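Continued from yesterday's entry.
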Amino acid sequence: MFKSAESCDVIQIDLTRVRRLRALVDGDTVTALADIFRALGDPTRVRILDVLSHGELCVCDLAAVLSLSQSAVSHQLRLLRGLRLVRARRAGRMVFYALDDRHIVDLLRQGRRHVAEEPARAARRSLRSRSAR
């Protein structure tokens, strides 16, 4: 029988550890987190969050920066507001949007760092494999 490299050859469960870790996985929290990552799975929404990480803007300015229609931007902002990633502030007839809190900026920054590290890691692996030859 063929064994996968991704699974154990022997089944031995540490019940104490399993019980403790199961308590960490709260269903509502996991669902909310998955919703945030799903929202971040759309390039337009990531671009909106990236632009807003530099400061508050109205829909008109956001649409101009992103070369999108105001309707398209408004649609994405509605979703982002529902997830509490952005907040709105009304000033007369204008509505300004900003990131909801500092955590969103940190999340974007860490994501950028992770993406930037991958090409560097690939280059190091390539150098190691060439030197091993």
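--- second protein ---
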Amino acid sequence: MKQTYNTIDYEWLTKPTGDPFADAGGFAIEYLSEKFPEKDILELIRYVTVDNYISTWKGKLHSYYHGSKITNPSIKTDQARIEGTMKMFEAIITEREKAEIGFCRITGKETKLYSLGRESMMLSGSGGFINFHHYFDDGLKMSKEIVIRMFFMPLATILLQGKIALLYSNSLDAVKFWFRGNCSKNFSRIGKPIQTEDEAGALKSEYTKIPNALFSFVDRLLSSNPEIKKDTSLTLYHCSNFITKSELQIYLLPAKVFLFYRTCLQPKYKDDWLKFIRAHYTDGQHKGAKYNIETGKFEIIKSKNTEVIDLEDYKQWFNWIYNKLLNGDNIRSEFLRWSKKHPFKFEIVSIYQQNNIGMKKETIDKIKELAAFFVRDEDADKIKKRINGLNSAKNASELRRFLLKHAVMPNYIESKEIPIVTLEDYVNYLFPDGSYWAEIRDLLLIAIYQELHEKKLMSKEIVPEFDNEIHNE
């Protein structure tokens, strides 16, 4: 960017601030500065106003700003909108606009301050309701650099479900990937004819479900930045600045979920994980749709033919796993149902329990050891009885009795030198204080099912509920 004005602190036009909306604008300015290094900041403002907001977006900035020079209904022509916008920013940049001295709410810098209301900043309240702001101010007090950044902010965001979607993270690499990707897509639309009214306005997400959109971004992020730090967390701000309904919802993808999901996409787990994920899409309008694990598509069998639905279509459906991971809900029951019918690397379950739930590794190792013990003789009738006995355990005492009857006693009778369950195992790992007995039971069943799959012993005779499909709760 050509640094023309000595009234501008150019570092604060792009420097990360920690404010997601200001940083979105900063990254948009940075992107434009690289694209047009010969333009100064006022020329960049004109370019964005004319080529993006007026020509390509047709002035549809209402989700972002209400009553701005571009969205104010009293300004009737595009030329008047352009002139009004440029006049306002020229007055701010040259400091002809009235200002007061103080500390900017975002940069913390002592400088000349300007009032920002809903006409130029997200969720900032209306200047008409002065009791909304501190000390009855007529808006939020910001430096000229932040005023400028907020103008560029829409270019680094998308619309999802008709509202603004802005992603932020503790990883600067993730933030850059999101913002610069949106800027690139937005600028690629310049000069292209608008076919329908719906195409005007900000870039729209291809997804209709928030969890699907968020995990799709994680997929792209990991594909492009495989070395991104493991403790990355993501926050999605989903908001609208419409005067009739200003609202903000925040969705958090914690670092432990990101790490687990990232691990599942490693080559040795990816095939099992993707089959598991894709089988858990569901849609109320496609009754009877069943996932074909071989083709990776959903099928609806009709009287004369079979309707096939591929990923590009069903990725818009509700996904149980994405939804539960984003909400922090446990997916152990989904692992259990899936394991009854499909081979699935138990390491994925183990990683999930340790990383997301906080289970001790020693507990997982003991469960795997017990599962191998229960299928050791490969006798279908005996294995079936053990599974039925485990399934019928309805409380902690029944589970304890099951382990004594089917593990501890048989191991003793078989004169094994090492006990299958020691007192330390029992107290510290299988039934420690605060543990949930059903979790041990379910994980033991999952491990047994996977042992059966590996040994090619899984059958309907052993697991009567073998035909159960993915639930549609």
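Residues 128-133, 467-473 have pLDDT under 50 and may be disordered. The chain has 18 helices and twelve strands. Will compare against the first tomorrow.
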